[in-house]
Amino acid sequence: MIAATVPPPRVVLYEGAGSAPLDPDVRTRLLAALLDRGYAVTRAVPGGARREEASAAAFVVLGRFGGAVPDVHDAAGRTVHVHDIGMSTVDEAVALVEEARAGRPMNRPDAGAATWKPWFPVIDTARCTNCMQCLSFCLFDVYGVAPADHTLRVENPANCKVNCPACSRVCPEVAIMFPKYHAGPIDGAPVSEADVHREKMKVDISALLGGDILAKLRERSAEAKSRFSKERSADAALAERRRCLTKLADAAAIPREVLDALPTPEEIERRTAEAARKAAAARDAREHATGRAVQS
Amino acid sequence: MGETAGATPRVLYCRCAYAQVVPGDVKDAVLDGLARSSVAFEMVPDLCEMAARRDGQLADIARAVDPARPLHIVACWPRAVRGLFHLADARLPDAGVEILNMRAETAADLLARVGLDVGSGTGATPPEAPA
Lengths: 296, 131
Ligand code: SF4
Ligand code: SF4
What we know:
With about 300 residues, chain A is an alpha/beta fold.
C-alpha cells in the first residue's frame, strides 16, 4: 500500500567536473538496476541544465571521483549522501543507494507480493464533462471532487481494485483511462468515433449494479442464509455470489477477485447511496458555481 | 502539444517498471541509447506510481517546462501521461512538451526524435535533463 511509504531518495549520477564518466555498459546496467528497484535517477553532465528540486527529501550522488569525494551541501539543508563508485560493481553501487534509504518502507517493483501495482483511473480532462457518473458508480471511494472548482478528481488512487477497469465502461465520454490496461482506448490510445459510439451503446452498469443485480443479490442472500448456515459452506456462498454477478462481470470486464472481494449487498447499497449523494452534491455545487460565473 | 523541433531538447524517460505494458525490448533499447549518449537526462521508475503518490517531482518537472527548451517525455500514450501529471496536481503546459510513445514507436525512431542517432554513441546537440 502506498500510503505508508516515503519518497525514496533521489539518485544523481554525477558525470560533471571532477568526476570521470562511467563505462557505458556499467552506466546502462546501473540505471536499469536502480529504476527496476524504484529509484529515480538524474544524470548530470557538463553543460547540463539544472532544475529546482523542491520535492526531493534526500539525495544520493554517485560519481567516479578518483578518491576525492567532494563535500556537497544542499542549500535547503536536506541530506546528501555522496559516494565514489569508481571501484564499485553495479550491485555495490545499488547497495549504497539502498543503504541511504535506511530501511524506510517504499513501494518497489521488485518486492513480489508486497508490490502495489499502480492501477487506478486517470481522467482525460479534455473529454470529461464532470457528469459524475463514475463517482456514483465507484464503491471504493476512488473518486472525489476538487474543492476549488467542484470538478471530478481521482482522490484515492490506491483504493482502486487492481486490474479492474469497470468504471471506464460507465463513462459516456470515454474519458477514463487505465494506463496499464492492455488495449485502447482504455490504455490512453486516441479515442475514435467508433469508440464513442460503442461506449454510448453500453449497458448502463450503474443501473445494473444499483438495480436488478443488487436486488437479486439481496434476495438470494436472504434466501441462502439459512441454507448456507446449515451447509456451513463458504465455497457455496461464493459460488452463489459469482453466479449472481456474472452479468456484471461480463458487461464491465470485472476480474473475479474483485467480485469476490465485494462487500455484502447491504454494504453495497449503503455505499452506492453515499456515492450517489456525493455525485449529486458535486453536480449542484458546479451548477451553482457556473450560474454565479454567468451572472457576474 | 507544443511543437518542439529545432530547439535543444531535454529528456524524461519512464521505465514503466510495475507492469509489462511497454514492450521490454523497446524500453531497454531506449534506456541503452540514452545511457550510451553524452547527454543529460532524468529517468523515473514509473510515472503511474509517482502520480498515485502525488510525488512532487512531477510538479517540479511541470514547473520547469520552457517552450524554448522543449521537454521530451519518453513514456506511453500522450493522453495518459498528461492525465497522470494532472492527477498529481502538476499540469503540463501545452507548449514545450513532446510526449513520445514507447507503446507505439520503435526505439530507433524514439531516439532519433530526441536527437540521438542509434549506434553513434553521442548526441549531436546534447539535450539536457529537465531544468
Ligand atoms: S463519467 Fe466520465 S465524463 Fe462523467 S465525470 Fe466521470 S470521467 Fe468525467
Ligand atoms: S506513464 Fe505509461 S509508460 Fe509510464 S509507467 Fe505509466 S503506463 Fe507505464
